[in-house]
Amino acid sequence: MSIAFIAVISALLYLAGAGVQLASSLQGRTGTNRSVLIIAFFALGTHVFLVWQNVLGGVGVDFGFFALLSLVFLAVNLACLLALARRPLQNLLAVLFPLSAVAVLVSTLGPDTQQGQAHIPVGVALHVGSSIVAYSILTLAAIQAALLAAQDWQLRRHQFSGVLRALPPLQLMESMLFELLWVGVVALTLSIATGFVFMEDIFAQHLVHKTVLSMAAWVLFSLLLAGHHLLGWRSQTAVRLTVSGFTLLMLAFFGSKLVLELVLERS
């Protein structure tokens, strides 16, 4: 069985899971659909295999743009499914799964943009791992913020339709957003700290944009958490700062790799 065929199967499973979750939400169901969890289990299984092949299956570790994209979406999906044990975040899957389908296809069928690194020091691995965890959690926070904004918009206009009918109450949605932000900021703090400790020159030319943008995102997220705790910032302020911080983090995480590997064709 070819790896391309497995990638197609994985993508189809993700799309099927998204479709079932969307249909469940449109019917106003608030609980986690068991069928979605079963489909997600098989989708994640194939995704893990693909990440292993694409990231670790060659000579060394491949952290190229497409391989990293697939790895990040695997981490985001795992984080969301684990969080379902405590919080009703199942509606995020309808957004995550289609994006994951694209990620597994491009990481498998797309071009190799970076040569594998034969050895990664433990400290650098800790930095990379904490960065992926931070980005994954804050991706969930950004999607949660978008749903919160849409829910708030409908409530202000006394309109309750579509998928938003299945969302938890607004207060719980806000609470879940700030919980995700707290966890994400802790992981981002660890990522930045390990970068300063273990990276040889975190302000080197090819890393300076990532470093500055990551620190700027950390400042925005920390400001939001402090404002929420001390000044009671909520709703639209939380949404704006969350999306702004995530945009900076996305540019830090993928922006430089996109330019270097796909535009300038440098590894």
Reconstruct the topology from this structure.
Elements: H1 3-26, H2 34-56, H3 65-83, H4 93-109, H5 122-156, H6 170-198, H7 208-231, H8 235-263
Helix pairs in contact: 1-2, 1-4, 2-3, 3-4, 3-5, 5-6, 5-8, 6-7, 7-8
* Category from helices, strands and their pairing: mainly alpha
Mean pLDDT: 84
Order of helices and strands: HHHHHHHH
Outline type = flat
Tell how many strands the DSSP assignment holds.
0
As a percent range, the share of helical residues equals: over 70%
Q: Count structural domains.
A: 2
Q: Whole-number radius of gyration?
A: 19 Å
Point out poorly predicted stretches: none
Classify the beta-strand content into a percent band.
under 5%
Total of DSSP H or I helical runs spanning 4+ residues: 8
Largest sheet: none
What is the CA-CA span between the terminal residues?
30 Å
What characteristics describe this protein?
267 residues; single chain; flat; 8 helices
Molecular structure report:
The structure is a single chain. The chain has 267 residues and is an all-alpha fold. It has 2 domains: 1-112; 120-267, no CATH class. The protein has helices spanning 3-26, 34-56, 65-83, 93-109, 122-156, 170-198, 208-231, 235-263.
